[in-house]
Design a protein that fits this description.
The complex is a heterodimer of chains A (558) and B (43). Chain A is mainly α and 558 residues long. Chain A has 2 domains: 341 residues, Sodium/glucose cotransporter (Up-down Bundle), CATH 1.20.1730.10; 138 residues, no CATH class. Chain A is built from 23 helices and no strands. Chain B is an all-alpha fold and 43 residues long. Helix content of chain B is 84%, strand content 0%. The model of chain B has no long low-confidence stretch (mean pLDDT 95). Classes of the chains: A mainly alpha (558), B mainly alpha (43). Chains A and B meet through helix 3, helix 9, helix 10 and helix 13 of A and helix 1 of B. Chain A: It is a multi-pass membrane protein. Chain A: It catalyses: L-proline(in) + Na(+)(in) = L-proline(out) + Na(+)(out). Chain A: Belongs to the sodium:solute symporter (SSF) (TC 2.A.21) family.
Chain lengths: 558, 43
């Protein structure tokens, strides 16, 4: 019987864990030193000059989107919902990348040299819209950063003699070490090495665990461990509880996540499509593949350590991998968390640099040197905050639900603002706030959902289904197809959804957010006389670090 | 038959990952070689 986690001494010696972490963070730090410049450029620190090639961009998109928590969550989905569970987690997560790329092309066309989406919203609408988007971006990145540090701390404490706190501290220091000086440039460059390690590990670890755990025989011997729903590839349980809320979240997470927007502004414009398609396949295959460890655990009848399904992946690795491959497994998880954490740090610093400092000063007046300093200070403060949240007793998952809903409220107003001249600042702001006000009581069941209220939620949610499908179709096929697809989706879903949808609060909460923001934003804009000139965005967003800006800053200092 | 398809279902993902990894690595090496030839930074 191989050693099992929690069954005695640590599976990995303290020195071996230290060696692996020194190797990983030492290697990434060396890469950042190689690309580092004595005088970094503020725009390079945020978007690497808007002309990054396909190899680095695709690696960076893939590495950033795969976070440690997504690996754990996919395995949990496989364990809870059976053979279709990982698909209902990973496929929709992958489609978040795919469905944003047509909008991404439009965003780059309208704002070719912007740094953040919120920066564009400032030019398009004004301060309130910018701050709502930037605020949700900051919260999202901070939560993601915290979650990754927690994953790192948990991994270290599970496999080695070190404590959770020691683990989170080392992860935070390691990521900050290589990201601080060169910012986004260091983040994308190290993403390439991290994606090599992560994807390489997945290629090896999944088949090794599969055959070590019994190979094909586990399916015949362990079939009795599955319920009929878990053994059904078309499980309605898996779809309603895992898949459907994720479909609703597809556009929300893509719009709300500054790490995606940052890569969108960094990649060479003609490479947006291949980059996003490659990242879609890379993310999907990796996360679904790792989710298979949860499916295997289910067939094997394994109980998660301490009842926590987040322990499933380390348990499977600890049980079926030898010392060398266990080391590779550690590198895979650390690669996943570090690549996302460095992206979060870069995203946070960009938002503070461009949206808070840059926009408050105005284009041509912001001091690029001061901007860089602000970006670096932001990274240090963000790391400290994430460490504080990680070691505290905050339930970050509840916060994540809240931020996800806020992103859902923003999807239509943000997308419409890039295509429709009539959208006003008031429509954007009121639409978003009204949607949030409607989401909260539905998601957290603050009002009884029986009787008329439940039916009302169902009707609004059905409209939300039409909005989600319509927006997805709009990106690829335009307005006409979007209207047909959205209407058809709502009509087809109505007989099944009416009377039941309000019982699935995660799903109906998101759908209500989409529906209300769309209806309010549309109704407030459709009669407006505003005819926004989209060329204004390209004129008013652009590089901060220009010779003129440096000269102006030098003069003002004197 | 079911066992065969389940085995395929588990093992297809690492194969897809290997394909993506190959594509990304090849593109990166080409871009690196081009940047080196032209005497500019890769990023």
């Amino acid at each position: 019987m191989p050693p099992v986690l929690g069954d005695g001494p640590a599976l990995m010696s303290g020195w071996l864990m230290i060696g692996l972490l020194v190797l990983f963070f030492g290697g990434t730090f060396a890469m950042s030193v190689v690309i580092g410049k004595k005088k970094e450029n503020a725009d390079g620190y945020m978007t690497a000059g808007n002309k990054v090639g396909f190899g680095i961009s695709a690696a960076s998109m893939t590495a950033t989107w795969i976070w440690a928590s997504s690996m754990y969550a996919s395995a949990t989905s496989g364990y809870n919902y059976g053979i279709s569970g990982p698909v209902h987690y990973g496929l929709w997560g992958a489609l978040m990348i795919l469905f944003i790329y047509p909008f991404g092309r439009r965003i780059r066309k309208v704002a070719p040299r912007a740094h953040t989406l919120a920066e564009v919203m400032y030019v398009r609408h004004g301060r309130s819209s910018q701050l709502m988007l930037a605020g949700s971006n900051v919260l999202g990145s901070l939560i993601s950063l915290t979650s990754n540090l927690i994953a790192g701390g948990a991994l270290v404490s599970l496999l080695s003699p070190f404590t959770f706190q020691q683990g989170t501290l080392v992860m935070a220091a390691g990521v900050l070490l290589y990201t601080l000086w060169s910012g986004f440039r260091a983040s994308v460059m190290t993403d390439f090495a991290q994606v090599l390690a992560m994807l390489g590990a997945v290629v090896v670890i999944i088949p090794v665990v599969f055959f070590a755990a019994g190979g094909p025989d586990m399916f015949s011997q362990g079939a009795a461990n599955l319920t009929p729903q878990q053994g059904d590839f078309f499980s309605s349980d898996a779809f309603m509880n895992q898949g459907a809320p994720y479909i609703a979240a597809v556009l929300a997470y893509a719009i709300g996540n500054q790490t995606i927007a940052q890569r969108l502004f960094a990649v060479r414009e003609d490479l947006i499509k291949p980059t996003f398609i490659t990242a879609t396949i890379g993310y999907g295959a990796t996360v679904i593949g790792i989710g298979m460890l949860g499916v295997m655990a289910l067939y094997l009848g394994m109980d998660p350590l301490n009842g926590d399904t987040n322990n499933l992946i380390p348990q499977m690795a600890g049980t079926y991998l030898g010392p060398v491959l266990l080391g590779l497994f550690v590198v895979m998880i650390v690669g996943a968390l570090a690549s996302t954490a460095d992206s979060d740090l870069s995203a946070l610093s960009s938002i503070v640099m461009a949206d808070i400092y840059g926009q408050s000063k105005g284009k041509g007046k912001a001091d690029p040197r001061k901007m860089l300093l602000i970006g670096r200070i932001t990274m240090v403060l963000a790391t400290g905050s994430a460490l504080f949240f990680a070691t505290g007793q905050f339930d970050i998952l509840d916060l994540l639900v809240f931020v996800g809903a806020l992103w859902g409220c923003l999807v239509f107003p943000v997308i419409a603002s890039f295509y429709w001249k009539k959208v006003t600042n008031a429509a954007f702001t009121v639409g978003t706030l009204a949607a949030l006000a409607a989401f909260l009581p539905v998601r957290f069941e603050l009002v009884p959902m029986g009787g008329a209220t439940g039916y009302l939620v169902d009707v609004v949610s059905i409209v939300g289904i039409g909005v989600v499908i319509g927006l997805m179709a709009f990106g690829f096929f335009g307005g006409r197809v979007a209207k047909i697809a959205g209407t058809a989706a709502a009509v087809v879903a109505a007989p099944f959804a009416f009377g039941t949808l309000h019982e699935y609060t995660v799903l109906s909460g998101s759908l209500v957010a989409y529906a209300v923001s769309t209806l309010v934003c549309f109704l407030m804009s459709v009669r407006s006389s505003r005819e926004f000139d989209f060329d204004t965005i390209a004129e008013r967003t652009g590089n901060f670090d220009t010779p003129e800006a440096i000269q102006a800053a030098a003069v003002s200092t004197k | 038959m079911e066992t065969f398809f389940l085995t395929l279902y588990v093992l297809i993902w690492p194969v897809l990952v290997a394909g993506v990894l190959f594509g990304i690595a090849r593109s990166f090496l080409r871009e690196w070689a081009t940047a080196r030839r032209e005497g500019r930074r890769l990023i």
